[in-house]
Amino acid sequence: MIHREGIPFLGYTLVIILLLVVFSFFLLSRLIFVFTSVFFIILYFFFIFFFRNPKRNFYEIHEKNYNKEIIIAPADGKILNVQKIFENEFLKKNCIRLSIFMSPFNVHVNRYPVSGKVIYVKYHPGKYMIAWITKSSSHNEHTTTVVETNKGKKILFRQIAGFLARRITIYAKKNSMVKKGDEFGFIKFGSRVDVVLPLNSIVLVKKGEKVTGGETKISIIPLS
Question: Cα(12)–Cα(118) distance, rounded to whole angstroms?
């Protein structure tokens, strides 16, 4: 499947590529035309690959033990770090921040890590530093979303633009009810997603580990 964010981009790009190929056919040598055509075909297939939206088979697990909240990865990528921070935008307390770095080759669909009610959504303009730099979390262009789960936990997560990513799309709406694994946004061409968890969370992943958005369990929060 091609993600809806990619359909207009792929349409415009196809028209431009066709015009460039026709231009090179009439004005350049045959050898340059062949190399140019091959380059544009490879580039276009990369764009198709980038905007892929594979079906994820996550489903809400109904457990007999209701004393824990399971958090799933909001994005495909690699765990950049897991560290204690003071979250000063909304939660105003010490937390655990889990960061996922998304390369241009990862699926760039962002998914809700928990089910519940969206209680906070804010867009922050900013810079475009390399996404794995720690201060990019607050200095780069980013969005902040907070979901209050059905079990009363407030989970904050951020989409963070990177050096290449110059457009963040967010679908989350305040006061809407959302389901774990559903899409909440999309970031183009390399970026980062942070999840901010309570201090008593049991982290199930480690630095350098690869995760799959909408599928990988990244944390368990005890409720008792």
Answer: 34
